[in-house]
Amino acid sequence: MAGLFSLPTNENPNLETTPVGDADMTNQNTALLSLRNVVKHFDISGGLLDQLRFSGGRIVRKHTVVHAVNDVSFDILPGETLSVVGESGCGKSTLARTVIGLYRATGGEILYRGERIDNLNDNGMLPYRTRMQMVFQDPYASLNPRMKVREILEEPVRFHNPGISDADVRSRVADVMEQVGVNPLWGVRYPHEFSGGQRQRISIARALVVDPEFIVADEPISALDVSIQAQVLNLMMDMQEKRNLTYLFISHDLSVVEHISTRVAVMYLGSLCELASAADLFGTPRHPYTQALLSAIPRIGGKAAGHIKLSGDVPTPINLPPGCVFHGRCPHANARCMQEVPKARQLEGGALVACHGVEEGRI
Amino acid sequence: MAGLLKRFRQSYFLYSFLRDPVAVTSFALFVILAASALLAPVIAPHNPFDGANIDIMDAETPPLWKDGGNPEFLLGTDNQGRDLFSAILYGMRVSLLIGVGAVAMQACIGIMVGLLSGYGSRRLDNILMRIADVQLSFSSYMVAIFLGAIVQMTFGVGRYEQVAVPFLVLVIGLAEWPQYARTVRASVLAEKKKEYVEAARVIGLRPFRIMWRHILPNTLTPVLVISTVQVANAIMSEAALSFLGLGMPVTKPSLGSLIKSGFQYFFSGSWWITLFPGVVLILLVLSINLLGDWLRDFLNPKLYKD
Amino acid sequence: MQPLLDVSNLTVKFALRDTALTAVNDVSFTLGRGERLGLVGESGAGKSVTGFSILNLVSKPGFIAGGSVLFEGKDLTRASAETLRDIRGNRISMIFQDPMMTLNPVLTVGTQMIETILAHKKVTRKEAEAIALDKLRKVYIPSPERRLTQYPHEFSGGMRQRIVIAIALLTSPSLIIADEPTTALDVTIQAEIMDLLLELCQSEDMGLILITHDLGVVSQVTQKIAVMYAGGIVEMGDTGMVVGEPLHPYTRGLLGALPQCADKADCGLADVAAPRARRRLNQIPGSMPSLSDVPRGCPFNNRCELCETVCTTTRPLLEVKSDGRLAACHMVA
Ligand SMILES: Nc1ncnc2c1ncn2[C@@H]1O[C@H](COP(=O)(O)OP(=O)(O)OP(=O)(O)O)[C@@H](O)[C@H]1O
Ligand SMILES: Nc1ncnc2c1ncn2[C@@H]1O[C@H](COP(=O)(O)OP(=O)(O)OP(=O)(O)O)[C@@H](O)[C@H]1O
Ligand code: SF4
Ligand code: SF4
Ligand SMILES: [Mg+2]
Ligand SMILES: [Mg+2]
Questions:
Q1: Is residue C252 assigned to a domain?
Q2: What residue stretches are annotated with the ABC transporter domain (chain C) (predicted)?
Q3: Is B187 inside a domain boundary?
Q4: Whose CA is nearest to atom 3 of ligand 3?
Q5: Which of residues C170, C203, C226 is at a domain's end?
Q6: Number of separate domains in chain B
Q7: Which domains occur in chain A, in start order?
Q8: Edge-to-edge, what's the strand order for the sheet holding C224-229?
Q9: Helix or strand or coil: residue A190?
Q10: Does B23 map to a domain?
Q11: A353 and A344 Cβ atoms separated by less than 8 Å
């Protein structure tokens, strides 16, 4: 029966895993979480009949594959906030969901404190469930509308601590509710009785009740109003301080990312372009895509039209361009960029950049 | 409890219900019909199943307001001299019992299959949905004929009367569960993409717990809506089967078998034996369907125009 | 000179079950020819309803309960259906967040553009096509001849929004109302679209009402900003002044809540209480009240640090303050 319920995976056993590249520079022992050449593909070919194509006088079976995340490697250090930015569809959410185990990686390895977790089954993953938690984007969809807030928060505690007394569960949940700024007396209400910001607090509380050390937050503030965004960001920063949390923070709001991150990773079309400390990246962006992205931030009091204009459209992740995925829009592209995939290289100062131009010193 | 009652009185549900005259009328009609069916032993002036009470001499008495009407028999009597009014009350009881029972059975099977199919792997989904397709391609009449033959063989025609109700529940229940399975599966597929389900998985909950505790309660709205329609359909199916002689025996009549028993006298002048059970059947089914329509519109505000 | 648009005391209500909800409360502003105004505020503040009611397009339970909208001297709240039809999509165009609200998925872009022109102008099909091509070039769509024969789904999100802008330009309107035109788009594409809107407004001398919740975006594009809160305008004035030295406690809180300002301290908020830790953002406590129970007196009083007794009893009116700006607050001189 277990087999019938396992997640639909798109396992591709033939996929080559390239040896760990230059990206592998951080000491394995100190990293909280390491991604090693992580690849995630989605097979969207549908049923057998949809896959059949007529070509060259023969019927062939053709798979349509979305290359959502391609060969991404980096480490997340304890206590830091690592943010991932990039435009819509570049694979940020897919990366986050692969890290937390909602998707199974097509290739590569994910290590948690040096132990592989990407190939574990449900039972093997269980101990990690109390260490890694997730906060979601949509405050309306991420809480079960038919459960009272207290039930939502008590469920994880009871599940991970079988035999715990009711009084202990209550006090633990009440503690966390207090910490995130939701009155524990409101536990008897249903989620729809709360505003978006309050729901996001409850969502954070649900992640915190199992006392994790690592939290993946996928656009936790995108759906909130500016004045509420500040409340939730402050809460997340407070919790980080108090509980020594590590965050993988995903957002497309670059000024928020600049404010709260220790380090920032920039993705484009499933590939990692640049990873550097927040000050470094926002101060001296090196990758041409990072430069274009940062120049487009609408700065208050800034002038429009000061940004780098990119030509062309974003290609689809179904047919990835050869070579550098950015070459079609890059103002610095040359012949090499169209053929050879750039590897992430570490520069002096610690920034990782995957670009031939930077490597050759042209940019 | 008082608080709950107060909340109900102030709820939007009650408010929009009271604003819709069709819904109120059909609800009132349904309550009257259902109550009189349930209270048949109390209300009915005669016990149509008590042989001692029945006098064949009273057979085919016309309704009260016709010539020859007897004040003892409000709606007249049937060909055996049973009081038609009482027979209709008792018959409606049987019809409702079978309708509700069959739908309960459909819902049990259908919800189970729909949940497994929607939340399980793609292969399990394929298997279950093909079974549902096969099931749907048999009409309930074929199932009834087939199972009826088996049941009558095992129990003998004489004892069939005793097992007729569970038998019809089984037949109609088996014939229509794919409706539920499909509805539930569709909403499971929609719910399972939502982030609260992902959150439950990140907590580490087991698939069965996620299905029961998290997904199922959120799929019950469409289940409620089709349930009303399905009860009406099941009552109709039962009536049709009985009319064809595959359902309730005349000795323990449902509305359908009452219609059937009077049908042969329809043109010989005793039209009331068929007409009154027929009218009651139509009113019952119509009121349930109208209520179902209202419920669907209420729960699906997107359908509202303006 | 007569302004292009003169909205005065506009009030829009929605008739609900037992009460009426005031979505737009006594809103007044004017817009000169070729002037650009930003309407900012949180979700539910009444920005979109204000935009719709300018065109007298408030849908059913809603109705314009008072005030007037003078467009080139005509009062649109009292105009005949015919006059309105002539003005909508012709003299005033609207751009929505979702381009598919404007585009019909089953017609080619060319057909839709040409139909629009033919509906409003007396020209031949040939001339209409020429106009369409011209406008597509204006919004920098490459190879417009080929694009005319394509369907909306063949374009990317950013391209679709540019097509919508091209359609809005077809009849050379004198006012464009853009309701969150870039909210669904990425920053790089947002920057392009905003550039384009700004450039077109300047070259064609069009007025623009830009509805958004992104203060960064409005501050780059518009000359004036009106900040809305709970259905009313709480502060209005020159863009540089509003984002540079906000007067109203809400505007100050809103700007202080932005990470950009917390990091750079260049938003003129030096006198706002310094954040506790360096990284903490300035937050406004609580959230905007739902429009069905706005507090008595000042609608912001339950979140305001400066709240005094008068704020709980009397609603402050939008009035000229010392530096010539408009603000609705008792405590601002
Ligand atoms: N379950 C899925 N099945 C098929 N394709 C998917 C699935 N999830 C994501 N994709 C595809 O993978 C790519 C990356 O999607 P992803 O959601 O990770 O992007 P994102 O960076 O999070 O974008 P956004 O900013 O819009 O959230 C997209 O092209 C998307 O269409
Ligand atoms: N059709 C409607 N029926 C009832 N109330 C409505 C309707 N449309 C809008 N409202 C009310 O009007 C208020 C203002 O809505 P509006 O759409 O103008 O907000 P907004 O400022 O544009 O917000 P957003 O940023 O979310 O678009 C809302 O709070 C809502 O309660
Ligand atoms: S590798 Fe070449 S195409 Fe890619 S970003 Fe660098 S210069 Fe541009
Ligand atoms: S009027 Fe009073 S409550 Fe309202 S913003 Fe001004 S000080 Fe605050
Ligand atoms: Mg995402
Ligand atoms: Mg709006």
A1: yes
A2: 5-255
A3: yes
A4: A327
A5: C170
A6: 1
A7: 2-131+212-360 (3.40.50.300)
A8: C92-95, C175-179, C207-212, C36-40, C224-229, C232-238, C326-327, C319-320
A9: coil
A10: yes
A11: yes
Q: Is residue B125 part of a domain?
A: yes
- Backbone φ/ψ region at C276: left (φ over 0), alpha (ψ -120 to 50), beta: alpha
Question: In angstroms, what is the span from residue B117 Cα to ligand 1's centroid?
Answer: 25
Q: Which residue in chain A has the smallest CA separation from C241?
A: A301
**Chain B residues close to C60, C-beta within 8 Å:** 306
Q: How far is CA A155 from CA A197, A294, C253, in A?
A: 22, 42, 37
Nearest CA-CA partner of A34 in A42, A43, A24: A24
Q: In what order do the strands lie in the sheet with A246-250?
A: A132-135, A214-218, A246-250, A81-85, A263-268, A271-277, A352-353, A345-346
Between CA A172 and CA A164 the distance in angstroms is 11
Expressed in angstroms, the distance from the first to the final Cα of chain A is 56
- Sort strands A214-218 and A246-250 into parallel, antiparallel or unpaired: parallel
CB-based contact A148:A133 (threshold 8 Å):
no
pLDDT for the residue B294: 85
Residue C182: inside a domain: no
Residue (of B30, B39, B190, B51) closest to B118 by Cα position: B190
- Average pLDDT taken over every residue of chain A: 87
Domain-located, residue C63: no
* Residue B257 lies inside a defined structural domain of this protein: yes
CA distance C286 to B187: 35
pLDDT tens digits, residue range A177-226?
999 999 999 999 999 889 899 999 999 999 999 999 999 999 999 889 88
**Which residues touch A338 (CB under 8 Å, ≥6 apart)?**
A321, A322, A323, A324, A327
Encode pLDDT of B172-206 as tens digits: 888 888 989 999 999 999 999 999 999 999 999 99
Domain of residue B211, CATH code: 1.10.3720.10
> CB-side exposure of A278: number of CA atoms within 13 Å?
18
- Gap between the Cα atoms of A212 and A195, Å rounded: 26
Domain extent at residue C129 = 99-170
Determine if residue C140 is left, alpha or beta; phi over 0 gives left, psi from -120 to 50 gives alpha, anything else beta. Answer: left
Asked if the model's pLDDT at residue B135 lies above 60, the reply is yes
Pocket test for ligand 3, best of A310, A332, A345, A352 (most atoms within 8 A of CB): A332
SS3 content of chain A, % helix, strand, coil (to 5): 35, 20, 45
Name residue, tokens 């408009």: C326
Q: Which domain holds residue B289?
A: 19-49+74-304
User: What is the pTM (predicted TM-score) of this model?
Assistant: 0.86
Q: Most distant CA pair in chain B: distance in Å?
A: 77
Q: Is position C312 within any domain? A: yes
* Binding-site residues, ligand 4, Cβ < 6 A: C 249, 298, 300-301, 304, 306-307, 311, 316, 329-331
Number of domains in chain C: 2
